[in-house]
Structure formats: C-alpha cells, structure tokens
Predict the structure.
Amino acid sequence: MAIYLTKESKVLVQGMTGAEGMKHTRRMLAAGTDVVGGVNPRKAGRTVDFDHRTVPVFGSVRKGIEHTGADVTVVFVPPAFAEAAVVEAADAGIGLAVVITEGIPVHDSVALTAHARAKGTRVIGPNCPGLITPGQSNAGIIPPDITKPGRVGLVSKSGTLTYQLMYELRDVGFSTCVGIGGDPVVGTSHIDCLAAFEDDPDTELIVLIGEIGGDAEERAAARIRAHVTKPVVAYIAGFTAPEGRTMGHAGAIVSGSSGTARAKKEALESAGVRVGSTPTETARHVLEALDALDARAGAAQDGAARDGARA
C-alpha cells in the first residue's frame, strides 16, 4: 500500500521538454514511474525518446488525460506560469498535481491551491521535491535509489532532510515519502499526510520533519493527540538558527516565541511524539519505536498461541 501515489498512477509532466523536465522525467522513468506524456502547447504531436521509452507530447493536460488516462501531473514550468499550469490541470480533472517549481509568488500559490481544492485536485508543493512510493512510482525529484519499500511513512517540509532520513533509514524502508514544501502556502499539509498514513494499513510508523516558522507543526501535534494511533517520530530543523533571523525556506519566519524549534518540539512531545535533536538521533528513535512495535506484536502472538493451546 501507499498514499497518493502507486504503481497504477499514470503521470503527465508539464514542462517535460525543458531541461529540468527532461532530466527528471528520465529519472522518474528509470524508477519505474508510468510517465504517459508531456505537456507543451508549442510541441504538441511530437515524441521524446527516453532510453527505452518514447513519450508523446500533448498540447494540453486535457488532451493528455483523454489519450492516456493520466491521473497525476508533475509541474516543471517557470514560476510565472505555474498558476496557469495548475489551474489547467485542475480544470482538466487531474487528481494529483505535484508542483516542483520554486519561487512562485505567494498570491499565485494562494490562487492555485484554492482553485485546485475547489476542483478536487490535491496539490503537493509548490517548491517541493515531490513524493515517492519506493518500488512503485516516483513523481518529482527525490532520488529513488537511496531507500527501499518498507513500513515507515515520511512527511517533510525540507527536501534535503527528506533525502537524509530516507538514507538513514534505508535498511528499514518506506511506504511513501512526501515532500510537502516549505513555502508559506502549500497544497498538502502535515495534517493531511498524517491522516492518510493513519489510514494506510502498511504504514506502521510515521516520521514528521518540520522546521522553524509558522505553526504547522503545532497544528500537527494537535492532530496527533486527537486522531493518530500509530507511533510518530519527528525532527525540527532550526534549533541553531540565530534569534530573529529568517532561515532557509520562505515559510521559516519566526515571530517572538511563535514558530521556534523549541515551541514545536514541546508541542509534539506533549502529544507523545519522540523528537530527535539531529537526523541521526531521529533515525535511532524510529528504530527503537519499531523494535517496540515488533516486541508487542510478538507478545500478542505468543498470547494468542497460548490461548489456542488451552482451548
């Protein structure tokens, strides 16, 4: 199982014929993603050869969906055209839009996420690495060869930390890793992913990566306390950020004590989440939590066997 993206997903790439689109489409195909088409109105009707796969180019997302049954689009268009690209995809009925583009003006992000939500399209991003279900599909720029399928779900604001935790836990593996992006406005939140992982039977533990700025992690803590039954381990980037300085992502803005790493850590720990002080310590917390799950499962099996024997 997985969330949002599976081996059945059929992927379009808006901006496939550009340099970044070409490079990452090749990588997605190599990872097993079913890339069924690109979108570029000026190159409609052409095809692009990627090693052992020839991919058609369509003049619109709607045409791509009509010809291929695509249900996912990955957006690699320049910031000035990103809102129009997502609006086009949502109007065409795409189910999932993964917006890799960085530098989209905030008012455009507000407009595209609101429009997509109204049309029933889930947006991952913008300014994100995308998402990967190892062994099934990869939509975006996440390196596919640093992990394997497994039982941990990962949701992260940071692309770099997504990759690092995937590597740290490469021997455990992941159900799905979702990089939601670190901009002030994103289409999918920690809370959305927590709910999806909670409902996924093959995700046994959830890793949440946050960072200074905003209150997304505090809101996630409230969701965990009220609705999440699976173990959650977290890491918050920014404990060493100089006071009063904006760091990293555009969303990493701290006002007073609000949005600090310490405040987020305290909120998560109050919800029963183990918070690592470094990515390596976070990975160690994950391994310890999985060992505890395995021990409980073993004890339950032993108890059931004894009850069966007595019966």
In short: The longest strand covers residues 149-156. DSSP finds nine helices and 14 strands in the chain. The chain has a mean pLDDT of 92. The first helix runs from residue 19 to 30.
